[in-house]
């Protein structure tokens, strides 16, 4: 359920053809009221259904933050285990097609802090299918390498793979991992890679302060402290949104979305 997910097929055509295949009783167009239809989805999940709720853009899910946090995330706990909430809430985020500040936000770190939910980020249609169908929490080794571990997710995967080609041409052998699961992290895959390459670079589109990269940095240092202190060849480095995005929003300019993160 969500805005325009029915016969229109969604703003980004993710649900194209579903209304024709499954009918209007299973594919529901909703009013522009994220708090309301997210609550409807949570209520449906409480009855044993498995709803999928779409937020047209990640920024719009802020309007449903109370439902996601206090109901979706906590009801299983606050009800003493009487209710399970098997719901999927999905939506795009990040720089796209000059969509401006309210449509281009990366807010995954907001939702990462909510107890009781899991969070994943897909970078390919195949990933999206698998992550929607099952609770897959395993990172994907996109490119094996020896010299540095590059951790990334979502849209940044494609930029990283382009950069990896440049590094290879210069004689470096980067290992690229699409972490996919933002909560919890797949520390087994990540840790094995770090122990092999001894160097870590995190590439993300999230904000500098309180972003996914900050949490991932903390998780790596906390879980691999002894190894980290003794055997890492270089300081962990991460790239993120330009600093101007921390104090403002994404511009509609055609050049600003392509600014280098630093």
Automatic annotation (TrEMBL):
Q: What is its EC number?
A: 1.2.4.1
GO-annotated molecular function: pyruvate dehydrogenase (acetyl-transferring) activity
Main role?
The pyruvate dehydrogenase complex catalyzes the overall conversion of pyruvate to acetyl-CoA and CO(2). It contains multiple copies of three enzymatic components: pyruvate dehydrogenase (E1), dihydrolipoamide acetyltransferase (E2) and lipoamide dehydrogenase (E3).
User: Keyword set for this entry?
Assistant: Oxidoreductase, Pyruvate, Thiamine pyrophosphate
What name is this protein filed under? Answer: pyruvate dehydrogenase (acetyl-transferring)
Q: Signal peptide location in the record?
A: none
**Which cofactor is essential here?**
thiamine diphosphate
Q: Which organism is it from?
A: Hevea brasiliensis
The answer on whether this UniProt entry bears the keyword Oxidoreductase reads yes
């Amino acid at each position: 359920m969500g805005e325009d997910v029915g016969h229109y097929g969604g703003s980004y055509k993710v649900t194209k053809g579903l209304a024709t295949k499954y009918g209007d009783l299973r594919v529901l167009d909703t009013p522009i009221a994220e708090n309301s239809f997210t609550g409807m989805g949570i209520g449906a999940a409480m009855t044993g259904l498995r709803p999928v709720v779409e937020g047209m853009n990640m920024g719009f899910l802020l309007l449903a933050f109370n439902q996601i946090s206090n109901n979706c995330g906590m009801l299983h706990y606050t009800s003493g285990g009487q209710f399970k909430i098997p719901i999927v809430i999905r939506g795009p985020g990040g720089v796209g097609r000059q969509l401006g500040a309210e449509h281009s936000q990366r807010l995954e770190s907001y939702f990462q802090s909510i107890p009781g939910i899991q969070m994943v980020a897909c970078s390919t249609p195949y990933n999206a299918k698998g992550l929607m169908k099952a609770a897959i929490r395993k990172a994907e080794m996109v490119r094996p390498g020896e010299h540095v571990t590059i951790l990334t997710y979502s849209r940044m995967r494609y930029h990283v793979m382009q950069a990896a080609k440049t590094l290879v041409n210069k004689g470096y052998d980067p290992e690229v991992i699409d972490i996919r699961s933002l909560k919890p992290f797949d520390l087994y895959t990540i840790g094995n890679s770090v122990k092999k390459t001894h160097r870590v670079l995190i590439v993300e589109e999230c904000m500098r302060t309180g972003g996914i990269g900050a949490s991932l940095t903390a998780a790596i240092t906390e879980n691999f402290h002894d190894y980290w202190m003794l055997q890492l060849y270089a300081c962990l480095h991460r790239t993120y949104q330009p600093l101007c995005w921390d104090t403002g929003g994404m511009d509609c300019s055609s050049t600003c979305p392509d600014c280098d993160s630093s």
